[in-house]
UniProtKB/TrEMBL annotation:
Record region (Disordered): 256-277
GO cellular component, one term: membrane
UniProt xrefs under Pfam families: Peptidase_M48
Keyword Iron-sulfur carried by entry: no
Protein name as it appears in the record: Peptidase
Entry's cofactor comment: Binds 1 zinc ion per subunit.
Gene source species: Aliidiomarina haloalkalitolerans
Family the UniProt entry places it in: Belongs to the peptidase M48 family.
Swiss-Prot/TrEMBL cofactor(s): Zn(2+)
Keyword annotations of the record: Hydrolase, Metal-binding, Metalloprotease, Protease, Zinc
Length: 277
């Protein structure tokens, strides 16, 4: 038991890193391992989902991605990112370690302009930059190790007592560790994404508007305490408060005449009309 505790402690100390926002975090997995997992996951998703061949949609997503990739730190900007649009009504998007971005037509249709798509894309890339995948895996591994240690420590208790103790610890670890970590990741990705979109020349004020649209679409129905994501109202408030800090980046791009121009494809409006009918 003591040896296990020592090993866990050493692992935690050795794996402490710092996120782009300056937050201390736990990373037990290497970048190469995460990149490999990202590549495998993306290949599987492309097999399971229908990849859009619509040139306008793909050009739209690529145009926005190119603008954001241009302002990424070198270790990410030199990657040849693969951007894929999936034909699905799912309101979702993702980015994976190794340079992979996926957008569903459902979320492209929900957004009103390039700026809101950039807010999503910056958010998803922010997860990659902050190594949230590694931190999530590391946290889950640490929770499992802690539960194993607790199980060993209560081996002298009756089966009923052990079951009750382990159940309580499992619930506590989710409410006190796993879910808050997940919500923190989402908030941090929002912050990083807002910074990226402003540096790339997209309007920061469109980020809170995005979450207004997400709320209208039915997001945030789960109580925030029990959710992996902050509520839309929390995100709107936080992003609104962060806009003044990033606005100078947008204004600098505007003064240089280097604002992105990625017009929203008319096919998205057609999708909306077909769905309404």
């Amino acid at each position: 038991m003591k040896v296990l505790t020592v090993l866990i402690t050493v692992a935690v100390i050795a794996a402490c890193t710092t996120s782009p926002t300056g937050r201390k975090q736990l990373n037990l997995f290497s970048g190469s391992a995460l990149n490999s997992m990202g590549s495998e996951a993306f290949a599987q998703i492309k097999q399971e989902e229908k990849v859009s061949t619509d040139p306008a949609l793909n050009q739209y997503a690529q145009c926005i991605a190119n603008a954001i990739i241009e302002v990424l730190p070198y270790e990410y900007s030199h990657i040849e990112w693969e951007v894929v649009v999936f034909e699905s009504a799912t309101i979702n998007a993702f980015a994976l370690p190794g340079g992979y971005i996926g957008f569903y037509t459902g979320i492209l249709k929900l957004t009103e302009n390039q700026h809101q798509v950039a807010a999503i894309m910056g958010h998803e890339i922010g997860h990659v930059m902050a190594d949230h995948s590694s931190e999530r895996l590391s946290t889950n591994l640490l929770i499992s190790a802690g539960l194993l240690a607790a199980d060993i420590a209560t081996s002298d208790r009756s089966p009923g007592q052990r079951a009750a103790i382990m159940a309580g610890l499992g619930i506590t670890s989710q409410l006190a560790v796993a879910l808050p970590y997940s919500r923190r990741h989402e908030s941090e990705a929002d912050e990083i994404g807002l910074d990226l979109m402003a540096r790339a020349g997209f309007k920061p004020e469109e980020a809170p508007r995005l979450w207004e649209l997400m709320a209208q679409a039915g997001g945030g129905s789960t109580p925030e305490l029990l959710s992996t994501h902050p509520s839309p109202s929390s995100r709107i408030r936080d992003l609104t408060n962060q806009i003044p800090a990033v606005m100078p980046y947008y204004q600098e791009r505007a003064a240089q005449g280097r604002l992105p121009n990625c017009p929203r494809p008319s096919v998205l409006d057609q999708m909306h009309e077909e769905e309404s009918n």
